[in-house]
Design a protein that fits this description.
Elements (H helix, E strand, L loop, with lengths): L42 E3 L2 H4 L8 E4 L3 E5 L4 E5 L2 E5 L12 E8 L4 H10 L8 E10 L2 E12 L2 E12 L2 E10 L3 H14 L1 E2 L15 H4 L1 E12 L4 E3 L7 E4 L4 E4 L2 E9 L2 H7 L8 E8 L2 E9 L4 E10 L8 E9 L4
Parallel strand pairs: 1-7
Antiparallel strand pairs: 2-3, 3-11, 4-5, 5-6, 6-10, 7-8, 8-9, 9-10, 12-13, 12-14, 12-20, 14-15, 15-16, 16-17, 17-18, 18-19, 19-20
Length: about 350
């Protein structure tokens, strides 16, 4: 997804816990690419409808499979794996950040309070995280809670208003994301959008259920251990390793990496996967699948022993103008200490 989009899909926040530069060499996969992988408080009570005074009579209506929501006519609609995003228009050359509202539905066996508590417990120690408010409300006529919080990022201080409801075994998350300096400018529009959200049917599972035996080892923060690009023409180079940017795999089946987010699952590796990656089979039997990685679905093998997961790979293709020549990037992730 575009680097300017901060899609906080769920109560969580990328933690920048490691400093320095990591230059470890990859041990697998390194074969020449030949596949076709495509490229990266105080609680009060109110009803969200009463909080939004912005008129929606001239709004457009998004009519999806599971829900409808209204949004301003000049906002841009984008759909990526499991997430629907509504972005504000840029207002000039100096405007480089598009505020947005996004909608995400993920499976959840927890009730609302347990879901929020579990998400917050992983996030309160994140550097720069500030919980601003927690307000009881409704979403599509059912109990919900709006969490307002902020965090520091490379783009400055980012603020979020995230309305969450758990219904029929699914968590529904509607998130408004903006720079703190422009948060109030679009807040009423975001509140009106959230108030207009109507669930049509019982949500379908948007992401495959994780294998329960593997999930505890996967749900954590991962550092980039190494990354390299293998050009179609035959040459290859190591790439700078972002030592302070972590891949966070969450229990709600969402992930974040810098300003990108999406959903994840674990699936069995098939023979076609090795062909797609252009790597000979060397032992792993399961793969990590990241929906929304660079706007599409990408994956890579999981290296594990009987008791732990040691490394995970994300293998994807890139081309101009991101790089000078088309090729394949192989990113290897290792565990963070204490994470």
């Amino acid at each position: 997804m575009h680097a300017q989009l901060r899609l906080a899909a769920l109560l969580v926040f990328s933690a920048l816990l490691i400093t320095g530069c990591v230059t470890n060499a990859p041990t697998q996969p390194t074969a020449a690419p030949s596949g076709t992988i495509t490229s990266q408080a105080v609680a009060t009570t109110q009803d969200s409808a009463s909080a939004a005074s912005t008129s929606i009579s001239d709004y457009k209506t998004y009519d999806g499979e599971a829900y409808t929501i209204q949004y301003p006519q000049d906002w841009q609609l984008n759909e990526a794996q499991g997430i629907t995003i509504f972005q504000t228009p840029l207002t000039g050359q100096n405007d480089t950040y598009q505020e947005n509202v996004n909608v995400l539905i993920v499976p959840s066996e927890q009730d609302l309070n347990a879901f929020i508590e579990a998400a917050l417990s992983q996030s309160v120690e994140t550097a720069g995280f500030e919980l601003i408010d927690s307000t009881a409300t409704t979403l599509s006529g059912q109990p919900a809670r709006t969490i307002t919080y902020s965090e520091q990022s490379t783009e400055g201080k980012i603020q979020y208003a995230q309305t969450i409801s758990v219904q029929s075994g699914h968590a529904i998350i509607v998130t408004y994301t903006a720079l703190s300096s422009t948060f109030d400018e679009y807040r009423r529009a975001a509140e009106a959008m959230t108030a207009s959200f109507k669930l049509k049917t019982t949500p379908g599972t948007q992401t495959p259920a994780a294998e329960s035996s593997m999930a505890p080892q996967i749900v954590r923060k991962w550092r980039v251990y190494s990354q390299a690009i293998y050009y179609d023409a035959g040459a290859w180079n190591y790439l700078d390793t972002p030592a302070t940017t972590l891949l966070e795999i969450r229990a709600d089946q969402t992930w974040t990496f810098s300003t990108s987010t999406g959903t994840w699952s674990i699936q069995a590796i098939e023979e076609s996967d090795w062909q797609k990656w252009g790597v000979p089979s060397y032992g792993p039997t399961r793969k990590l699948v990241l929906n929304g990685w660079n706007g599409e679905t990408n994956d890579g093998p999981i290296e594990e022993s009987e008791s732990r997961v040691d490394f995970m790979w994300v293998i994807y293709r890139v081309g101009p103008p991101i790089v000078s020549s088309p090729g394949q990037i192989q990113m290897k992730f290792g565990q963070t200490y204490g994470g």
